[in-house]
Design goal:
The protein contains four helices and two strands, in the order ααββαα. It has about 140 residues and is mainly alpha-helical. Helix 2 packs across helix 3.
Length: about 140
């Protein structure tokens, strides 16, 4: 039972996930700071409020509908999504495309190309042996 748990933890994808969670938490703190200390005050200037949390509040009876807080959360989400895309996803996709292009220019076989059949391989081996025999490099030396 412990061996199975150790194998599970030692798999790369579990460790990658743990690193992603830690980096995500740290990154969220940075984005939250940017939203709270830069974006919220700028928008607060427009709505004459300290931050979006205190702007656009609709009070009906005892209920308070905080539309400014919702807008602030949406801005925070879009900021996180944009940074993740432009810092992580886009560069990785570009790197992968460059590696694939480099592999194709070096003459690497296409991944989609089917492997040669047994008959094609045997024909190629026969032709190579015949060429060696013609050059005097027969196998009988």
């Amino acid at each position: 039972m412990l061996k199975g748990f150790r194998d599970f933890i030692a798999r790369g994808n579990v460790i990658d996930l743990a690193v992603a969670v830690v980096i995500g938490a740290a990154f969220t703190a940075v984005v939250t700071s940017i939203v709270e200390n830069l974006i919220n005050p700028l928008i607060g200037l427009v709505f004459n409020a300290e931050s979006l949390n205190t702007a656009l509040i609709l009070e009906i009876g005892y209920a308070k509908f905080k539309f400014g807080a919702i807008i602030g959360s949406l801005i925070s989400f879009l900021a996180v999504a944009a940074v993740v895309y432009f810092v992580f996803v886009y560069p990785m996709n570009t790197l992968r495309e460059h590696q694939e292009a480099r592999a194709k220019t070096k003459g690497a076989p296409e991944e989609d190309a089917p492997p040669p059949s047994e008959a094609q391989l045997l024909t190629e081996i026969r032709d190579l042996l015949a060429a060696d025999a013609r050059r005097g490099r027969g196998t009988g030396d």
